[in-house]
Every structure is written in structure tokens, then in C-alpha cells.
Amino acid sequence: MTENPSLSNLLKEERRFAPPVELAAAANVTAEAYEQAKADRLGFWAEQARRLTWATEPTETLDWSNPPFAKWFADGKLNVAYNCVDRHVEAGHGERVAIHFEGEPGDSRAITYAELKDEVSRAAHALTELGVQKGDRVAVYLPMIPEAVVAMLACARIGAAHSVVFGGFSADAIAARIKDADAKVVITSDGGYRRGKPSALKPAVDEAVSRVDSVRHVLVVQRTKQDVAWTEGRDVWWHEITRKQSTEHTPEAFDAEHPLFILYTSGTTGKPKGILHTSGGYLTQTAYTHHAVFDLKPETDVYWCTADIGWVTGHSYITYGPLANGATQVMYEGTPDTPHQGRFWEIVQKYGVTILYTAPTAIRTFMKWGDDIPAKYDLSSLRVLGSVGEPINPEAWMWYRKNIGADKCPIVDTWWQTETGAMMIAPLPGVTETKPGSAQRALPGIAATVVDDEANEVPNGGGGYLVLTEPWPSMLRTIWGDDQRFIDTYWSRFQDRYFAGDGAKKDEDGDIWLLGRVDDVMLVSGHNISTTEVESALVSHPSVAEAAVVGAADETTGQAIVAFVILRGTANVEDEGLVADLRNHVGSTLGPIAKPKRVLPVAELPKTRSGKIMRRLLRDVAENRELGDVTTLTDSSVMELIQSRLPAAPSED
Ligand code: 6R9
User: Fold this and answer.
1) How does pLDDT run across 4-55, given as a tens digit for each residue?
2) pLDDT digits (tens, 9 = 90+) for 205-240
3) DSSP of 512-578, one letter per residue?
4) Which of 133, 460, 529, 645 has an alpha carbon 20 to 30 Å from 336's alpha carbon atom?
5) Where does 442-540 have alpha helices with state H?
6) How far apart are CA 438 and CA 239, in angstroms?
7) Residue 505's closest CA among 558, 577, 457?
């Protein structure tokens, strides 16, 4: 982004949706919160911290004497697991369901808060018996089963930091993460159910553990009952060791800054970064944002976040935020199309889900599958819809609102990162007049803005880099074992500001629109064009369900826009006129500068396990290079499919 410092602002969106009157009248958080936080930001967070139960109440809110190393609520002490479980039982809610588990094969299990307390206590004793102590690290490699939540809370309860690794990553990835964190114990399972069949997990752990020295025990949950290799003395069945433990366990209070977990993000280069989160500030912000942004009413709502536990969204909005708030939630093990493409909506109907939190990649997939599928189910229980993970294209937003939200549910598009720990920019469902495709404004107590190359704030209507200008309670504290990398990665591009890596623009009202990673921005004839805007223009064409665009080296324009599109169920791939039509559609929506040079219909796009499109790989394809690292792809055969289509793909101009 050097030739022209600001990002072009091409897309105009005029649609507006007021909050539902009833929701606004009873909303957990009103517009006053913005005023209150603006007048006294630290006082505001101190008040939110009081939503938690502290063994020692903090007197100091923020210590920012050694930036960028923050300490929040430093003299307070608490136990995170106690806050997520025990205190609800003590308050008389032991019979409330904490987790409605729905297995992929159709088995289900309801776990009350009282039962969760017993299970977490037993698991905590079991970890202690295996030699895990306060300050140790435990790696977790599990499918989406309740034991994943129990394992995380058991670690928190005894003051050990967990490091959850996606149950789909390779032995290499597990080994690298175990090594970096020096984990003593790994918690895994025999396998899990995915796409209608049991898939094994333990073999990858066995291989990883054989390459590292730190692991003393592997604790194995029995899920599928498939055969497993067994190392005597090292491997321990979860059900055998937990069965003999007491359900009484006294939680110890730890410092607010005691490490809670490490979660690795892949990053574009080099070794994965171990993002470190601590206890008091993290739990304060995850609990507050879950209460505010979803308007959670724990007595009546049924909440469902479809994320995997191996993603930060699973940490903050399945385990910690919802449980700290005493929510009843659904947890689903499998994929949205097993055994049929209506599985999600069947689950919404079965449990009467009121709040649904999912990702744009899922929404675009549902669009592709067709409107008739959700239409077969009763979705009338829904009242708030959330989105996270990528910019949501306005057309996908509209589809979500109409086909899932019956044109009445507010949509909260939540921008945040593994590093931020909790939501940072999002509408409030009882306050904000929403705009399709915009995350809108920083939440109360959060300071975000958009700056140009020289760190000057851009005016309304301008585009540039998204930065956070004040520390926040759930911020990462460092990169595990590498303070210098923490400083270099996040705090050196702009002085005293956290740079998130994302491009963004402000509209005429000052609302924020995320424009994708700045590494992906395309430079076409001297204009910085965001991938998001071109993709959104393509998705606004009735034939397109999903699009990914990249800039490929071009002799005349510097870079040329290459678009990969997935067509909707009804569109015909062989339709000769369609490609020209799509190019013209983008030209008329955004202007001629944004017209893709090539449009390639494909069946699938390369995505990470959390559903983000990997444009880097598409750039390799578009520039006829050998593919870079594909290990974090959900399905590596996707790239072969795309490459095989290339020679035949029509090229324009
Ligand atoms: C929570 C999560 C972080 C990156 C982030 C941005 C993208 C997430 C978004 C969004 C636009 C949203 N992102 N939410 N972009 N609108 N609502 O996804 O964490 O996996 O660390 O990814 O995801 O690019 O920088 P993580």
C-alpha cells in the first residue's frame, strides 16, 4: 500500500435496519453504555469486572506502565472455572442445562451446570493425579464433544494453561505446538465423527508425542470406540481415571494475570505464534461482550455457536463467555451436511435455538445449497444472529437475515481476532441501526480507528489500516516465549497503536467496514483495491454464492484482478455469457477499475479450518507458481481441482 496510501472506497450500501422494538425495550445494554465508557473507560471496565466473582476484588484496573505489556485487574484473584460453573450452582441454577450436546450420528446428551461442576472437578483431580501443576501446560486435541469444554475448564481450575490444537491438524502441527509450550500432558480421544464416519485422532497424537520429550501422559477420551494403539504407563483412559475421582474440588484463586491459555495462530510466515491470554481481563471481556452483543438472557435463551473449539471463537464464545454468563447452549459435533443439508436447521428447531453465531463461509454455503432447505424447518425461535471470521458480504448478510432470521432478527457482525481475545467492533442488537456488511463501531470501552500510511486518522469516507488505540482487558499479553516478536508483529508498524493486519474504511457516518487483510490488498493501476469489495460485488450477482479475488502480477496494470467464483445451485457453469456478465456486473457496481481481468468458476475454494479463504494459494495459482504451504487447509484436494480447471478457463482482454 505504498503508491496510494489509502484504500479505495468503492462499495456503497444504502440499506438500513432498525433494532426490533421489543428487543430494544428489554435490551441488556443500551446506548448509554457508549457514553458511560467514553466518560470513564477504566471505570467502565472495572464495573464489567464486577460481573465476575472474585476471591479478592481488584482495586487497580489497568497497569500500562510498561507498554505494550498490559496488566488488567492485577491485584485481583479469581478462579475462572469457578466463575464458569460453580457459582451458577451456588446461585440455585444447578438444574439448568449448560450444554445440549448433539453428536453427528444423532446421539445427544444434556449436561446441567451441577453435572458440569462434577465433571470438571473430577477432571481437575485426574490432571493433578497425572502430575499437572499450577503453571504447567496441557495440550488438548479433541473433537467437538463436551469433554473438550470440561478439559479446558479443568485446566483453568488447577491453574494449568491449555493449548487447544484443531482436531484435524497433522502430527507435525501438534508436535510443534507441544514443543513450543513444553506441554506435560495431552488430552485427546480415540476419534470423532465427521461426515458420517468415525475418524481417528489418537494416531496423530502418538506420532507427535514420539517426537517430543516433554509429554508424560496422554489422556484419552473414548468417543468412537475404535481400536487404538496403547502405550502402557503413558496412556490413560479418561473414563477410567475420572470415574474414581471425587466430585468435590476446592478451586484455588489465581492472580488475574495468571496464564489461562495459549492458542497458536498460523501467521503467514515462519513458526506459529503462541498467543497468550490471561484470566481476569479475558473473562471480563468475553463475558461482557457475550452479554451485550447477543443480549443473552440466561433464563430463557438457547445459544448456539457453530465454531470449533480449536478456534478462538470456540474458546471465547463456547467455553468462557457463555459459561461465565450461565447460558444454556447447543454444542454440535459434526458438519452441516451430515446426514443432510438441513442439519443445522433441524438442530435449531429441535432445541429452540434463540441466538445463532456462525461464519460467513457457512452462510455462503447455505446460500449455494438453496433457500428451500432452511424453509423446511421452524426457525421462529431465533431472535439474534451473529457472524464472525471474515467480512460478511452484504448479499450474504441479506440472505441470512431473510432466510434464517425471517426478516426480523438483528444481525451482529463481530470483528475480533485470536489476539484481541474477545469482540471489539460489533453492533449492539438493541441499539444499532444495522447496515449489511458492516461491523459498524467499536464496542463500549474499546477504541478503534482507521489510519493512513502516516498514522493519520482517515476522514469519514476514507480507507486504510484498522488500529486499536487503547489497551483492552482481553488483549493478548505476549507471544509465548517471544516478547520481541510480540512487539515487532503488533506494535511497531504504528507507534503506540496495535495494528491488527486488516484494512478497513469509514463510511459517511463514521461506521467501520472491514476490507480484508492488508497483505491481500490489490494494487491496480495505482489504486489499492480491497479483495472484500470486489468479492461482495460478485456475490451480489444472483448467480454467485461465493467469490475469492486476488491480484496477480500484470505487465500493464501492476496487478490484475483474478476472481474465483462458486456459482449458486441454479447457475450453469458452461454458460458462455456468464463470465462476461460477472465482469460487467463488478464494473457497474464498483467502477471500471475494479473489473476482474479473469473470472474462473470453481467448485470449491481453499479454506482454513475456521473457514477463511486462503488467497495466498489462489495467488500462487493465478501466477502459475508452485503452491506454498497447504498444511492448514481443510481439504488439500481442493487445490488440485482448481489447478486442473485453469488451462481451460477463459481469459478476457
Ligand atoms: C475471531 C477470529 C482474525 C481475522 C481478522 C479479520 C478476520 C474476523 C471478522 C473478520 C471482517 C469480521 N475477521 N471477524 N473480518 N469482519 N466480523 O476470526 O479470529 O481466527 O484470529 O482471525 O479474521 O481479518 O484479523 P482469527
Assistant:
1) 557 888 889 999 999 999 999 999 999 999 999 999 999 999 999 999 999 9
2) 999 999 999 999 999 999 999 999 999 999 999 999
3) EEEEEEGGG-EEETTEEE-HHHHHHHHHTSTTEEEEEEEEEEETTTEEEEEEEEEE-TT--TT-HHH
4) 645
5) 483-490, 531-539
6) 46
7) 457
Using a 10 angstrom Cβ sphere, with 0-12 exposed, 13-18 middle and 19 or more buried, the burial of residue 579 is buried
Residue 525's closest CA among 490, 498, 560, 500? 560
- Distances from the Cα of 262 to the Cα of 281, 488, 623, 631, angstroms: 15, 19, 36, 20
* Ligand 1 atom closest to residue 612's alpha carbon, by position in its atom list: 23
pLDDT over 70 percentage in the chain:
97
With beta carbons less than 8 A apart as the criterion, state whether 305 and 348 touch. no
Under a CB-based contact definition with an 8 Å cutoff, are residues 382 and 404 in contact? Answer: yes
pLDDT in tens, 496-552: 999 989 999 999 999 999 999 999 999 999 999 999 999 999 999 999 999 999 999
The finding on whether 424 has its CB within 6 A of some atom of ligand 1 is: no
Task: Judge whether 591 and 7 are in contact, CB under 8 Å.
Answer: no
289 lines ligand 1 (CB under 6 A): no
Three-state DSSP state, 14: coil
Answer for the pair 504, 515: CB distance below 8 angstroms, yes or no.
Answer: yes
> Are the C-beta atoms of residues 528 and 452 closer than 8 Å to each other?
no
pTM of the predicted protein model:
0.96
Residue closest by Cα to atom 3 of ligand 1: 417
- Tell whether ligand 1 has an atom less than 6 A from the beta carbon of residue 389: yes
Cell 479450518 appears where? 609
Domain ranges for the chain: 541-644
